[in-house]
């Protein structure tokens, strides 16, 4: 009986990777554009390189490396807002890439606004760090492995006659079911944060933040190019934003661009 259960677990675990396709490579029709963009960048034509990288994005091909190169091109071309925007996009797809993290930090160093963040409760910070240690696909794959082990525990509990093994099966089923739920939630949250459009970058040199969504609204403070904001809502050409220290206000929608793709 135990041999059958072990074989079942092995089969389910081995089958998991087949359910998740690998990240798609840039398709053949975009490879020439990619090579042309890289050549222009090497030759110092950063504006031209950025245009070719953008052409690849327009075709619907996205990758962390593409956004990273695009951020580099914009940074070299002196377009700070677009550089920060694309570094942030690259970081969403490659959160543990040291080059992306470093270049984003360098670009942020040129942003005029230095905003103190609101302190976060340590438990929330710990859970977030644990959750972001893996990407959504990895959490999803692990959730299936945990589910397989939990089901194996159920089988042991139901089919094994010896009480000792039944207890082991019961405990394993409960523990791995709980872990399965956590993995599914983490996968869903990571996927949502990857695709949601709740953050944006200021794209103009200076944007006056208004108290209301209208030109006549009083100025609360000013944000500068490259500053990251959280998008709260939108209304009639205006976007309500919140900065890292918790202050809120309204800016023209065309003065910010969402970190999405």
From TrEMBL:
The chain crosses the membrane at residues 139-159, 168-189. Pfam families: SH3_3, TPR_2. Keywords: Membrane, Repeat, TPR repeat, Transmembrane, Transmembrane helix. It comes from the Bacteria. InterPro entries: SH3-like_bac-type, SH3-like_dom_sf, TPR-like_helical_dom_sf, TPR_2, TPR_rpt. TPR repeats lie at residues 64-97. Residues 197-260 form the SH3b domain. Signal peptide: none annotated. This is SH3b domain-containing protein. It comes from Alistipes inops.
């Amino acid at each position: 009986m135990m041999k059958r259960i072990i074989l079942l677990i092995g089969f389910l675990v081995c089958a998991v990777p087949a359910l998740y396709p690998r990240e798609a490579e840039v398709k053949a029709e975009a490879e020439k554009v990619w090579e042309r963009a890289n050549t222009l960048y090497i030759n110092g034509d950063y504006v031209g390189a950025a245009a070719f990288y953008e052409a690849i994005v327009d075709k619907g091909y996205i990758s962390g490396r593409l956004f990273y190169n695009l951020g580099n091109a914009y940074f070299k071309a002196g377009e700070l807002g677009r550089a920060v925007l694309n570094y942030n996009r690259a970081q969403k797809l490659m959160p543990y890439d040291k080059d992306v993290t470093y270049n984003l930090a360098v670009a942020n160093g040129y942003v005029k606004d230095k905003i103190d963040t609101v302190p976060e409760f340590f438990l929330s910070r710990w859970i977030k760090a644990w959750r972001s240690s893996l990407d959504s696909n990895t959490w999803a794959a692990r959730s299936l492995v945990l589910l397989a082990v939990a089901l194996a525990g159920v089988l042991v509990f139901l089919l094994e006659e010896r009480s000792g093994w039944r207890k082991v099966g019961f405990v394993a089923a409960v523990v791995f079911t709980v872990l399965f739920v956590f993995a599914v939630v983490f996968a869903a949250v990571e996927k949502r944060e990857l695709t949601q459009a709740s953050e944006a970058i200021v794209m103009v040199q200076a944007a006056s933040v208004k108290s209301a969504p209208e030109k006549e609204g009083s100025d609360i403070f000013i944000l500068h190019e490259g500053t990251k904001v959280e998008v709260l809502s939108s209304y009639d050409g205006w976007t309500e934003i919140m900065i890292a220290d918790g202050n809120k206000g309204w800016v023209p929608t065309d003065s910010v661009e969402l970190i999405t793709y």
